Amino acid sequence: MTDVQRDVMNYDVLIVGAGPAGLAAAIRLKQLANAAGQELSVCVLEKAAEVGAHILSGAVIDPIALNELIPDWREKGAPVHTSVNEDEFLLLGQTKSWSIPHWLMPPLMSNQGNYIVSLGDVSRWLGEQADAVGVEIYAGFAAQAMLYDEQQQVVGVITGDMGRDSHGAETAQFTQGIEIRAQYTLVAEGTRGSLTRELESKYGLRQQSSPQKYGLGFKEVWRVPAAQHRAGLVQHSIGWPLSADTGGGSFIYHYGEQLVSIGFVVHLDYANPHLSPFDEFQRFKTHPAIKALLKDGERLSYGARAISEGGVQAWPELIFPGGALIGCSAGMVNVPRIKGSHNAMKSGMLAAEAVFNALTQAGKQDSRLLETYPQALKDSWVWRDLDAVRNVKPLLSRFGSWGGTLLGGIEMWLHALNIRLPWTLRHQKADHECTRPAAEMPVIHYAKPDGVYSFDRLNSISLSNLAHDANQPCHLTLLDKNVPISVNLANYDAPEQRYCPAGVYEIVRTKDANYLHINAQNCIHCKTCDIKDPTQNIVWVPPEGGSGPTYMGM
Fold first, then answer.
1. Buried b vs exposed e over 220-237: b needs ≥16 C-beta within 10 Å?
2. Could you report the per-residue pLDDT of 59-74, keeping only the tens digit for each?
3. What domains are defined for the chain?
4. 354 vs 63: CA distance, rounded Å
5. Could you tell me if 23 and 520 are in contact, meaning their C-beta atoms sit under 8 angstroms apart?
6. Whole-prediction pTM value?
7. Of 50, 68, 102, 343, whose CB count within 10 A is highest?
8. pLDDT per residue over 193-225, tens digit each?
9. How far apart are CA 50 and CA 260, in angstroms?
10. pLDDT tens, 241-258?
């Protein structure tokens, strides 16, 4: 790709991804430069059609990073209004629910002082703040590949071509991708990003780390009758409909004008290839307690995305020659707290400080390694937040939902008493390695959606405001086109038909042969296929810039 003559844009710093981490980094860079009276050009590249369009999160946010970055965020109109005033944690049976007394919960699980928000709306607002301090943001442009110099150091990215047809040929609307060059590049593309995967492979960034672990998170926003709305309520549950050996649980957040965020997370290390995370979420909503909440309500939006759950032991090396990984590109989610945007933002801020120091202090640029960033992160409250729960996910993987929750809760209580256990458990397997052959696992039968509380995939993605040019090259690539039938269908009953939350993958059976049909236009960019495919044969790459969902209020 580097042999092609392309237009070139040059900046001091390039940030890939306009989520909380990337925008926090951009704002912090300009704050430092403006305070020092120095010129510093900062560019943020975003693959979505607009800032915030691909952001999906529960979301209850801890405002600690926002307080540090923009102390007067209230006066500047941040869309952060509903403070948490009530916490509930439920155990669900098939028809009943039991509330765990709040005093039994480890203190770090409390959401007092936090806020229920749309993280997409917060990201849009952060984009406005970045623009106000002089950051250049380009939405609708996908970073397709990293750009390297002769010493194999990162010097920027190449954006994807626009206007190729499904066979890769140039159409009348063809526009060639450009080179965006920078002295430093911060990668903030989120969970399981394609550039992150490229960098990890090129520089061996994962050689010392545990496999990254993931969850698949679903979210719907409903407007419910006023009598059923309790503004400021944060509710989580574990149990039904998942079996004890399948990790996950629900969240329900009441906020705004009779709005409820209702969601479900399934840990992707589940073994049964017959399991459908999407249908487990739909089944969850048929529980009597949930139906009572949603009765006479209106479903407004739907989306899903993968979540990095591996914790600090699954962090890759965070720096490479010419840049760093920040936010969920590295993995900043605190699994039991079910939040990570505060950690993501702080990681971006600390990386920004390392970049600014490297650009302004003599001798710091020679190695092109931002060596102060990883240490600053480990000295910060981000590390303390994640270190306290570092063993929770491994315990859940080894002992299931009930045993793992109990043991993880004990460890979190010990941490609250300033007792830190001396070991850090490593993750034993990547999620795709946990899938068992279909013949060894029980078939799961899901009821037909009722169209009131439960819905099918196509009905759901109609609420995601999808936009893909059907004639563009397929961004869901197969390393071997024979594997979906010869391996996945033969051994695992084609689990891609079930783990995908958008109906992208379909086995077509004819009298002559079976084949995999990929409905790429349905893709909501969750990356689950790239994670859970048993043979790692499916590789997700960015489609044309501006493609995918346009989430509103998510």
1. bbbebeeebbbbbbbbbb
2. 999 999 999 999 999 9
3. 8-70+121-209+316-387 (3.50.50.60)
4. 23
5. no
6. 0.95
7. 343
8. 999 999 999 999 999 999 999 999 999 999 999
9. 24
10. 999 999 999 999 999 999
